[in-house]
């Protein structure tokens, strides 16, 4: 009886083990079928994507602009200082402590005499600090360039290695995992290179900003000394040495004759023959002298109806061009990499042309190679850049 029980137990154990093996085999077959179905579905999807046509590029909507030769006046906004051969009000343009005020009421002064000197130590220290910061940024740029060169070298080496891996992959001498890993590394290096280039551009912009800040402080430094703009007599004194004053504070009155005119200072590379003030045009003449920054002084003749007091600053427009020509609007010109382009619209097509700007003012631009051009397109800079890259356009209206 005991032998029969043992025999039954052995038979049941073998039956259970056989059932488990069958279940495993069925599970494996199911997994294989699922993987096979997924691979076939992926191949079908790739084939469909390969056969699909890329979406058509939609044309950019732009406007055309008709160029006609006409009377053109180009001006630029500027500032002029009211001067007088009769007298002047002396104000300070910066805040600070008065170090010198060597004139007294009733004292006669000549044009060019020192009237006021403001403490300049803070401004000089600020310039030194900005210059040190600028130098530090330059060192950062050099360091970033070294890193960029190293990453470009690494990228070139990796590309060469990747090309060899691709050849080996064809003959099963390399694995697909190795090939894809190298592709990932190449993409990462390209991203790092772009990041480094952006960092360098950011630092370069910072250099420009610091340079502009230095120029502003240097310009303010010039205002620490105030000289007599005209010859005359000190009729009133409103401050004393050692006093801390605010910008724009009146310091002295100088009286004399009542002849008033406007004076402007222009860079040596900019010329003008007229200025426009309150809708009126006035001729200006060069005074044949320059200051330390290389700017030239110009003055108008006496203006009887000028109500502003000597020393006041007025907004004016300098006339930089007057004549017959074709005037380009600013939204017809693309500025790219120091070159300027217009897009000529003719016979239903648009073609870019590099232009040479002769004059530019508030009203627009004059170029010297547009005599044969009748129409151009106008758009925002980002749209013009896309047109330059070859994106098709659609002209919807004509503007003048």
TrEMBL record:
Question: InterPro entries, alphabetically?
Answer: MdtA-like_BSH
Q: Which residues form a coiled coil?
A: 120-220
Q: A GO CC term? A: efflux pump complex
The keyword Metal-binding is assigned to this record: no
Transmembrane residues, as ranges?
A: 21-42
- Protein's name in the database: Biotin/lipoyl-binding protein
Q: Give the source species.
A: Flexistipes sinusarabici
Domain of life, source organism: Bacteria
Which part of the chain is the Multidrug resistance protein MdtA-like barrel-sandwich hybrid domain?
A: 90-250
Annotated GO molecular function terms are: efflux transmembrane transporter activity
For the keyword tRNA-binding, the answer is no
Q: Which UniProt keywords apply?
A: Coiled coil, Membrane, Transmembrane, Transmembrane helix
């Amino acid at each position: 009886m005991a032998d029969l029980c043992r025999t039954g137990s052995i038979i049941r154990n073998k039956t259970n083990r056989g059932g488990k093996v069958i279940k495993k085999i069925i599970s494996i077959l199911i997994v294989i079928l699922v993987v096979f179905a997924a691979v076939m579905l992926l191949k079908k999807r790739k084939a469909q994507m390969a056969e699909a046509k890329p979406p058509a590029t939609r044309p950019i909507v732009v406007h055309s602009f008709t160029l006609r030769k006409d009377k053109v006046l180009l001006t630029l906004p500027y500032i002029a200082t009211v001067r007088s051969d009769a007298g002047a009000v002396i104000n300070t343009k910066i805040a600070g402590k008065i170090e010198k005020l060597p004139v007294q009421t009733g004292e006669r002064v000549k044009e060019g005499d020192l009237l006021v000197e403001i403490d300049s130590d803070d401004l000089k220290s600020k310039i030194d600090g900005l210059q040190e910061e600028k130098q530090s940024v330059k060192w950062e740029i050099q360091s970033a360039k070294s890193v960029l060169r190293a990453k470009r070298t690494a990228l070139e080496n990796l590309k060469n290695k990747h090309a060899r891996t691709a050849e080996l992959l064809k003959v099963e001498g390399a694995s697909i995992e190795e090939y894809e890993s190298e592709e990932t590394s190449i993409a990462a290096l390209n991203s790092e290179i772009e990041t480094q280039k952006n960092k360098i551009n950011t630092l370069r912009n910072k250099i420009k900003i610091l340079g502009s800040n230095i120029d502003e402080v240097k310009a303010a430094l010039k205002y620490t000394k105030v000289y007599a703009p005209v010859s005359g007599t000190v009729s009133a004194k409103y401050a004393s040495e050692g006093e801390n004053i605010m910008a724009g504070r009146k310091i002295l009155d100088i009286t004399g004759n009542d002849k008033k005119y406007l004076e402007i200072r222009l860079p040596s590379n900019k010329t003008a023959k007229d200025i426009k003030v309150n809708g009126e045009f006035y001729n200006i003449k060069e005074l044949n002298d320059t200051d330390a920054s290389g700017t030239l002084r110009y003055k108008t003749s006496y203006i009887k109806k000028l109500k502003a007091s000597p020393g006041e600053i007025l907004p004016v427009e300098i006339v930089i061009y007057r004549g017959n020509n074709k005037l380009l609007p600013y939204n017809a010109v693309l500025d790219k990499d120091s070159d300027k382009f217009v897009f000529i619209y003719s016979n239903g097509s648009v073609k870019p042309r590099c232009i040479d700007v002769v004059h530019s003012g508030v009203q627009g631009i004059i170029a010297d190679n547009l005599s044969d051009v009748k129409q151009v397109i106008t758009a925002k800079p980002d749209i013009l850049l896309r047109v330059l890259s070859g994106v098709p356009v659609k002209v919807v209206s004509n503007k003048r």
